[in-house]
Class I SAM-dependent methyltransferase
Amino acid sequence: MKDPSIRRSITLFRAFMGEQTDPDRCYALLAHDAAEQLERQMPLHDRLVVDVGGGRGHFTEEFRRRGAQSYLFEPDLRELGARGIAPAGSVVADGYLLPLADGVADICFSSNVLEHVADPQTFLSELIRVTRPGGLIYVSFTNWLSPWGGHEWAPWHYLGADRARARYLRRTGRPAKHALGENLFAIHIGPTLRQVRAREDVSLVTARSRYWPFLAQAVTRVPGLREIATWNLLLILRRRTETAAAMNSPLRATRG
């Protein structure tokens, strides 16, 4: 499917709406789409891809189908075992402290995890640490003011998290999986973009709406509007070489 396009957005949206009843179809489609996005930047064949927080392993499996050496690092044993068996080579590990040496990965991948960590900047720094100079970091997250920011209790999160969770319980008869401040955090696009652009160890390849059907990059450039209309922010970063990082350091101008 062409990206971006209305057809692609509708297909992914329909899959998303059926995520609870048919998660395998939903995540298989999402994994295929993410791999296509990565392939436009770097061929996956023979690359070492680290999938951080990849849940049931759909992304890892898609990367392997394309010839990559991919390994899944997931802290939740329930997610790893949700399909009965985890992908070979899976590691139970926290994204804050990956059991990997510096600069080992060609690509570090994290899909829809950043909104579930209390310290997204430390998490992002760890993804960058394990990526080699010249390698890519793929990060996407659902921003809080998106219509999907409250996850299963969206869009009622606009009326407050407690009210939204109470409504979900009344409607479904079961408590919501996500609780604000516990396993879901209010992350915003503007501050995230400023923090990424201020880093000396990465350059920004693209910042765009992951699912928006047109003007996917333009919508992220409009303050205010982007917090609602982006839906889900996709960042692709490139790890700078030490030389490139030094060239961009403010200390260089001072010393000169």
